[in-house]
Amino acid sequence: MGKEEYYPLFETRRGKGRLMYIIFSFSLFVGICSIWVYRVSYIPKKDGKWVWIGLLCAELWFGFYWFLRQALRWNPIFRQPFPERLSQRYGNMLPKVDIFVCTANPEIEPPIMVINTVLSVMAYDYPTEKLSVYLSDDGGSDVTFYALLEASKFAKHWLPFCKRFKIEPRSPSAYFKTLATYPNNDAKELLAIKRMYQDMESRVENASKLGKVPEETYSKHKEFSEWGSYSSKRDHDTILHILLHRKDNARDEDGLVMPTLVYLAREKRPQFHHNFKAGAMNSLIRVSSMISNGKIILNVDCDMYSNNSQSIRDALCFFMDEEKGHEIAFVQTPQGFENITKNDIYGGSLLVAYEVEFYGLDGFGGPLYIGTGCFHRRDVLCGRKYSDQCKIDWKNVNDENIDHMIKVASLQELEEKSKTLASCTYEENTSWGKEMGLLYGCVVEDVITGLSILCKGWKSVFYNPTRKAFLGLSPTTLLESLVQHKRWSEGEFQIVLSKFSPIWYAFGLISPGLQMSYCYYNLWALNSFPTLYYSIIPSLYLLKGIPLFPQISSPWFIPFAYVIVGDSIYCLLEFLRVGGTIKGWWNELRMWLYKRTSSYLFAFVDNMLKVFGFSNSNFIISTKIAEENVSQRYEKEIIEFGNSTPMLTLLATLAMLNLFCLVGMLLKEVVLGKASVTLFETMLLQVLLSGVLVLINIPIYQGLFLRRDKGRLPRSVAVTSTTLALSVCVLYSALG
Ligand SMILES: O=c1ccn([C@@H]2O[C@H](COP(=O)(O)OP(=O)(O)O[C@H]3O[C@H](CO)[C@@H](O)[C@H](O)[C@H]3O)[C@@H](O)[C@H]2O)c(=O)[nH]1
Ligand SMILES: [Mn+2]
Q1: How far is Cα 50 from Cα 265, in angstroms, rounded to an integer?
Q2: Which residues form ligand 1's pocket by a CB distance below 6 Å?
Q3: Residue after which a domain boundary falls, among 438, 456, 485
Q4: Are residues 60 and 138 in the same domain?
Q5: What are the binding positions for UDP-alpha-D-glucose in this chain (predicted)?
Q6: Is 254 a catalytic residue?
Q7: ipTM given for this complex
Q8: Are 554 and 608 within one domain?
Q9: Residue 173 belongs to domain spanning
């Protein structure tokens, strides 16, 4: 026919078993409706009317939220890129890729970890002259700069080593850790590079420990003089250095060109809000546009090292596909964690989200941008709307980039010119943070930015390679995990209230299924109220001996039993199917409860305080280090609670309350000698609910009263929670 046959660069497959799922989910829906009908038709005339209405509201919410969740399971799709076709078709006409690594605090994000991430992304299997790596240091730390300087030297040996032996992963520290389990390649070279790494590691760690760069290095490199005029982390000039660049003839030990490597600490002034990571990213977008201007941007957190050297090529298959590529704004990979235990005590792996829900989001063309492990098209990130003109002629973009390079005379000149782009005043009276770049004012800048991009007509893609693309660190204490979830749920809820709300703004701009899916995430915080209600009121009424649910002989018992059992079994099976364990699921259930009753509640309250102008939201950076004994307990799956805080006190109080109610009820039974059979007959659901809550809380009771190690709950929490729970029980019994 004269027309060349077209081979797509990626393939999309639909998930199986949809019909079965729809039938099952419809049956649950009928069950949920029956529960509503029961609640409405049996509202007591006087006593307990409001308690009953409260339950109705909770059940309405649970039903509605369950309905939102369905959208994420209706239409899962799976993606498969074909990187060999990419190489065949484009040869070495591949686009430039700019990689942004963000770090913000050398104390809780150790510089050695940061440079391991940097080294891993410098070592991608990709033409080095097209790769530029930028480190944004919001901590403005000379130690981090020193570490990067060390990394730039080590890279000259590390990159050839990676390529010669095709090793994975390419983060040196992660690679050396795997050696215990895999046979070595060339032992001599390996030993040499390992020794070199260890030397560097000890230099960097020493500097971190002392908080000071070695004297001789300081005097040898003039760059450090910039820290001379530096007053504080929150008040300093822009510090920008190009450590490796073609113009400087930066080559590795084999004589190959090195990737460009840039250090940036954007200007910070107390009178300008720095907008956390979003601000850092926007500075990087501008600065990199001057230095390398790659069409594709990869964004990773400083703890998310590349675990797969092929990721860039995989991602490009999506963007560069001739038929569908031009609609795609970003390609998100799942957050994987290096330190997750098999049974994942803090639910940090987000297993179901990344192994089920994101495929569902992809079915609607809109996976979330989750801030790390995400490839973007630069023009879209800069605010471009989708139109037919957005098609990139990939075969011709390179020339344009090279032109761009020739314009500047020297590297110094390039540095000076780029610096101005990272100043505080640069964004004044511009649409940066509003229409361009990452959006400001939301602590999940990633999700809101992703949503705003989808609203401009673009699509996003979720790609989950067999060998995880990136691995990071998940919190190792319960409190940290709760604080992280608080930040997330607070940010998600800010989106509902923001200009870009999926409820009204997105209406008509994205598909209804996608709107529902975003709402499912954005409305996390609201779950706190019905969950608190459900975990307090039925227990207290159990203590009083007043039934709130149909008794076992009533036909209304059936929908309750069906919905509870059906949904639990479904969730369990789903969890097992994606590689979880039964114990992991039980832990997940615990975290589900704890997140809802603490993180989400505090997130909601803080949001309201913000709406009424009483406070500003803050971005609390998660710690990426753990003391030796803390990580040991984490490995053993023993919960590390953390300091005494209102969040933990609340959880402990709820746990004690349920224990008192259950035990109190049983004691009453024994003392009063009522026939227990009737009680279990009339109040089975309430007994079960309290019983399950007590079972879930066993680690809390242990942490309060039985454990002796440092990871236990603080004494003060034990006293406060017991007193509070006891008073509530006594008061409630007395009043009723
Ligand atoms: O003022 C700041 C604060 C944070 N960061 C960086 O942002 C990243 C994420 O911070 P972290 O404390 O690790 O938060 P996580 O909860 O693990 O991060 C998830 O959630 C964030 C939104 O809440 C996203 O920004 C992240 O990309 C996403 O991985 C880290 O690299 C930080 O160095 C900055 O650059 N500047
Ligand atoms: Mn993180």
Answers
A1: 57
A2: 102-104, 109, 136, 138, 276-277, 280, 301-302, 370-372, 443-444, 446, 484, 487-488, 491, 619, 621-622
A3: 438
A4: no
A5: 109, 138
A6: no
A7: 0.99
A8: yes
A9: 95-307+367-438
